[in-house]
Design a protein that fits this description.
- Helix content is about 40%, strand content about 20%.
- It is α+β, with helices and mostly antiparallel strands.
- The protein has 2 domains: about 1-70 and about 115-210, no CATH class; about 75-110, no CATH class.
- The chain has a 4-stranded antiparallel β-sheet, with helices on one face.
- The longest helix is centred in the N-terminal third of the chain and has 22 residues, at about 1-25.
- The chain is globular.
Length: about 210
């Protein structure tokens, strides 16, 4: 847990550095400092630095980044017969049974990516609210401007903020785990178990350890 807290604290520096670089305030920044700018704002992999970004967070593991799948998918909507999906497609909601969320007719396969798609990406330099700029963590709800912030994404709707925050915290836990075992990182995302480490996870926490053969 201490490592995770340190990781989250370090994210503050990452967001500030990204904001400064984008806003042109870093006078002596090396050329190409914004080489990953598009990847940061569009949740993409940056080949130049061999790192991916989701909600502004650098993800070192390509396997984990691909599993996070922070993009919408265009599917044949008529192929869905699940009542929950049919309703979610109509309303832009989330089907808990199929674990698919819908935004503008695009499918998102996790709560995190679904809620991120319903938010708006900004950089720290664009925050007009002093309370938001002074916030001490990468996620917060601001009672002054009545908006929530998760990484580099702003939410006007509190329910979307809370959903994104839960997924964001799980992503940070998985990212930390990926440094020792990428399979554990995937298991954390899926509430599954790691075949190699013989550890099962629920809500980001180990809940059981299978006996090794």
């Amino acid at each position: 847990m201490a490592l995770i807290r340190l990781r989250r604290a370090a994210l503050l520096g990452t967001f500030v550095a990204v904001a400064v670089s984008f806003s042109g305030c870093e006078e002596h920044a090396p050329r190409g400092a914004d080489v990953c700018a598009e990847a940061v704002t569009k949740n993409r992999w940056c080949d130049a630095r061999n790192v991916g970004f989701v909600a502004g967070v650098p993800i070192q593991s390509r396997l984990l980044f691909d599993a996070l799948d922070a993009h919408g998918h265009e599917l044949n909507l008529r192929a869905f017969t699940c009542p929950g999906c049919v309703e979610a497609i109509r309303t832009g909601g989330f089907c808990d049974k199929c674990r698919i969320g819908w935004v503008d007719g695009m499918a998102y396969f996790s709560r995190l990516t679904y809620h991120l798609a319903r938010g708006r990406v900004v950089i720290a330099a664009d925050h007009r609210c002093p309370a938001c700029r002074d916030a001490s963590g990468p996620t917060h709800w601001c009672d002054v401007c009545k908006r929530g912030v998760v990484g580099n994404t702003i939410f006007e709707n509190r329910a979307d903020f809370l959903g994104a925050r839960r997924g964001f915290e799980l992503m940070l836990t998985a990212d930390e785990a990926s440094r020792r075992c990428e399979t554990c990182a995937l298991a954390i995302l899926a509430n599954d178990s790691c075949f190699f480490c013989k550890v099962a996870y629920l809500d980001g926490k180990p809940v059981a350890t299978a006996r090794r053969n």
